[in-house]
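cache lookup: miss for this entity combination. No prior model stored, computing from scratch. Input as submitted by user K.M.:
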Amino acid sequence: MVFSSLTFLFLFLPILLLTYYASPGRAKNAVLFFGSLLFYAWGEPVYVVLMVFSTLLDYTCGRLVERYRGTSKQKIGLILSLCGNLGLLFFFKYADFLADALHMVTGLNVPKHGLPLPIGISFYTFQTMSYTIDVYRGKAKMQQNILSFGTYVTLFPQLIAGPIVRYRDIAEEIDHRTHSFDRFGEGARRFVTGLAKKVLLANNIGLLWETVLHTEIAQLTTASAWLGIVAFGFQIYFDFSGYSDMAIGLGSMLGFTFPENFNYPFISKSVTEFWQRWHISLGAWFRDYVYIPLGGNRRGLAIQLRNIAVVWLLTGFWHGAGWNYILWGAWFCFFLIAEKLFLLRLLSRLPKVCGHIYTQCVLMISWPLFANEDVGRCFSHLRVMFGGGVRVIDDAACYQFLTYAPLLIVCTIGCTPLMKKAGEKIVAFLQAPKKQPVLALCDLVRLVGLSALSLAYLIGGSYNPFLYFRF
Amino acid sequence: MRNKITSILFILMLLTGAGLHLLLPDRVYSERERRKLEPLPDVSARSILSGEFGRKLETYLADQFPGREDWVALQTITERILGKRESGGVYYADDGYLIEACRSLNNRQLAANTQAVKALQDELDGLGIPMHTLLVPTASQILHDKLPPYAPNADQQTVTDYVTEKGLHTVVVSPILSEHKDEYIYYKADHHWTSLGAYYAYAAWMQSKGQCADRLDAWQKETLATDFRGTTYNKVNDPWAAYDTIDAYYKNVEHSVDYNRGYYVTKSIYERRYLDSRDKYAVFLNSNQETTVVRRKTDPNGTETREMEDDPGGKLLIIKDSYANTFAQFVVDDYAETHLIDLRFFRGSVLQYIREQGITEVLVLYSIPDFAAETAIPHCSR
């Protein structure tokens, strides 16, 4: 099930919230656990078994780690967890890709299983691994209660599209969390904002990208190619950050504090900064569990550069089993290394606008690689972007631009902190007790307005894709 | 306080939506959208495991959502405010026109259709029966000034040029329609031309035969409806769409009309029961029928209802799409019999029909997008 569906909003969520808040404290986790299994099983009735398996595996591994702590066998739990989770991930996500690659290189015919990818597998395997690793490192306490642990693994708000919540982030809240109108209200506002970002902005600007994507390369003009790629950047940002907002909001309604996942990435002045603002939880995961264990930046420049390279190839590959994702990671890797070596210093001496332009250029060239699994199409799209098309501009491009101009403006404003700052100003202005009713009215208009518009688009049945089935 | 209100409001929205959905009865059909709505899906282990149940349930929830059409209208309004220029293949054009887009023309089908019509024309030439082809440019061609700037739009003139070059005796109507483009010749919320637009084409056809059409006021004008919203409105569901006026023009209000070889016989070419439905254009010649024969009415005593010095003889056959339904008003009194054939439903031999019925003149009348797309046209040379 996805959040931006009527089934979720008017069937699953009301029933879950009512049951959850009607249940006594100790039963709340059980409600969440079974509710989450249902949530997952809705779209993946069979693969829910995998999630139960992953839960049991890491629960056991955590216990094994504690049991043998200080002995020669203390690594057994850790290794089991890594092999189990990475094995699952490898089998479902990468086996067929490698079979193809092997066939391409050696000509060997390796059998492929052809199974579809279980939704969210890249998220939950990373999360369960984080638990065992943290217990092993002594950064988290072992979870005795399997239901509590199951609640963490299956927790529906963050299950299928992140953020990647590490066990230690919410270890305390799993067993002792507080519920309040403050948390619920904030969560509801956050959820509705996320829903609007996904349904109103991402889906609609995504249509522009779809149009460009389905244009024959031979008929694509330079202007259309750029327009399409700008639209794609907006789509992926509003979709992904919208999902994260909804997840964080739902978490808050249920008493959890999830880590932030996006912090206005498009205002970055360098690629380094971009990745500190984009999919933050994934970056944190790779930093804590790959980059630092490899030695991070403390073992000399050469090792550091190697570590950056490893992390970014993996990051690219994590996003999907395809050559384009590897290239995408490598593209960022190149600039991150260049920035580490000299570019950041150079940029700091130039006017700020240079950093913004440079970052946007790197991003615009990266999106075609991210958007097309067909590497050939990636490069032909890039070729057209840089003047290799039939024409620079045609009527279709002008028409698309004029049609989408208002939405592009809304998206541009939406990806900067402008609205947030304005909102904070208004709230600060209306903070006085006398003005509280006005503030409440503003909230009401915003909440009902955004919900109604999003609902209209959901009922109207417009384009509403789920973009993370390759993750 | 603020968060309490937000919390309660949020919960209330979810519960109201869910509650109303549960309480209100499901509908089978949406009159406004003209389609069947998804019923509650059956539950079975197989449909659940395959995920089909989940997909159907989502469609069911959307289709049966309380006030569905109003939500869709809200979406349309939002899209228009955000500058959307088209929806479902229909452009939001100037002056309240909803104009069906004609993006591309199917050249292969066009070639096949042209070849078939040419074959029929050659046969009839041999028999000495005159035949003309009248291809109607649609609003996206004649009213292209009203389309949004840079809107992709195929040039329909190329079709007329093509068929003329292939040797069809074409009636050129683009100039006269363009000349009168500021008049009400196309509906605003339907893809057809109006009776007035059809009259101008009739005049062009008469002229091409070296005759002069009567002035429009030779026909009596009657307004049949003022609240018509047709196909293009249905595609965009735009609450701001204009209402069209349907005018009828007739010299004799009564004819003998025979649909589908005696299946339904009536006295008027206007089937007024459609005026209470949404499909009001169907008032002209009872929507689209396989064969229609309109005979000039003679009263039981055998005398003409009108003084007829110019007693018309002749039998005209129109091979057509729905654009001919308004056109026919102007010709039915020029011939003793006017036959209309819709090739989508007609399964016989056109040539044989012409011989059997003693047809003396033939007109092929299609809108250009239809003529380039209709796969039934090759039947006409059978």
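stored under new cache key. Chain A has two domains: 6-177, 183-414.
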